[in-house]
Design goal:
repressor, about 375 residues, Arginase, Chain A, eight-stranded parallel β-sheet, alpha/beta, globular
């Protein structure tokens, strides 16, 4: 159900969107063509009429990129971006920076990733300036990239730059990660930071990438208790996911009282995603985002994983509609990619018959432990 019209009438929403941004980000191998599909569906539902488009988007300059990634890493990224290298042609120092396997050398990767980072920062700036209540970059959300390493299809961690931009204006920023995979790059960047709370809900199993995000990973030093991890098992349902999210995030708002919130909305936890691990539909995600919108704090929404592209487009279009307060027709409107939504041409995502391995008692204890750590964070913040 949509948020009541009265609650959204005054909500100002911005979308980072330009032809160059969409076309360039559609060139990344693992998500080739995805951003075109996503923004075409948003356009087909006429949602651009209900928001402000941030179209004057520029690549994040190298001086700003050095605020997180190292000079050596950026120089290596430029090298693999400017030549047509095969993975077996990489020398050892390039391999050391992670340019193989899941982050192969891609011509233009530096330009693409720095433009995506520029778009995320532009969205964050629009929030910080008080011009908008919600800002969105569906081409962003690359949460695995580390200071010195490309990882998990991520070459530049745009999220870190978005958080740092918000941190200039707000004392406390909360980062939430809904992707199937643990938000390890963002957590690691802020593991020792008291002013940035990272919260990740994800699948955790032996041998599953990135192999981190246990519930006892809680931050360290000044950032102790400011990292929250809720590792879930296969087959988690909308109801379980949304209830766990509500309990943890309500506690986070109370304990941490963030000035702004960043939410990575990776779509690979959908039942229809290629991973087929979680069993979420649009409802599970929308219930989570609804809670964030109701908190009435500046909210930066980002993309992320999502490898069944029509499902990803449905989710991010539905979240955009929720932000602007529009009820969407369940029938996909006719547009140039209409055929990709067959055979039912319907906005819904159907859950699978997958077995749910999440025991309700275990889940309750997991949530209670996260809530307890958040109370300890509140105590630690009061002592400072």
């Amino acid at each position: 159900a949509a948020v009541p019209a009265s609650a959204v009438r005054d909500r100002r929403v911005a979308l980072a969107y330009s032809r160059q941004l969409v076309e360039l980000s559609a060139q990344l191998p693992k998500v080739r063509g995805r951003s075109v599909l996503v923004h075409s569906l948003i356009h087909a539902y006429k949602l651009l009429d209900r928001l402000t488009v941030l179209s004057d988007l520029k690549p994040l300059p190298e001086s700003a990129l050095l605020g997180f990634h190292s000079e050596a890493y950026l120089s290596a990224l430029k090298r693999v971006s400017s030549a047509d290298l095969e993975a077996d042609e990489l020398d050892s120092d390039l391999l050391e920076f992670g340019f193989a396997y899941d982050c192969p050398p891609v011509r233009g990767a530096f330009d693409i990733a720095s433009l995506v980072a520029g778009a995320t920062v532009a969205a964050a700036e629009a929030l910080s300036a008080g011009q908008f209540d919600v800002a969105i970059n569906w081409t962003g959300g690359w949460h695995h990239a580390k200071r010195d390493e490309a990882s998990g299809f991520c070459y530049i961690n745009d999220i870190v730059y978005g958080v740092l931009e918000l941190k200039k204006r707000y004392d406390r920023v909360m980062y939430i990660d809904l992707d199937l995979h643990h938000g390890d790059g963002v957590e690691e960047a802020f593991y020792y930071s008291a002013g940035i709370l990272t919260v990740s809900f994800h699948y955790r199993a032996d041998g599953f990438f990135p192999g981190s995000g246990d519930s006892d990973d809680i931050g360290a030093g000044p950032g102790r208790f400011a990292s929250v991890n809720v590792p879930l098992k296969e087959g988690v349902s909308d109801a379980q996911f949304a209830a766990s999210f509500a309990a943890v995030i309500d506690a986070a708002f109370e304990a941490f009282d963030p000035g702004a919130v960043v939410c990575q909305c990776g779509a690979d936890a959908l039942a229809t995603d290629e991973f087929k691990i979680f069993n979420l539909t649009l409802t599970g995600y929308l219930d989570c985002v609804k809670l964030l919108l109701q908190s009435r704090r500046p909210l930066l929404l980002l993309g992320g994983g999502g490898y069944h592209f029509p499902s990803t487009a449905k989710l991010w279009t539905a979240i955009t509609a929720l932000a602007v307060g529009v009820d969407l027709d369940k029938d996909i409107p006719e547009h140039s990619f209409f055929s990709q939504y067959g055979p039912d041409f319907c906005l819904d995502v159907t859950p699978s018959l997958k077995r749910n391995l999440n025991d309700s008692t275990e889940l309750r204890l997991l949530v209670e432990s996260a809530v307890e750590n958040l109370k300890r964070l509140a105590e630690a913040l009061q002592l400072r």
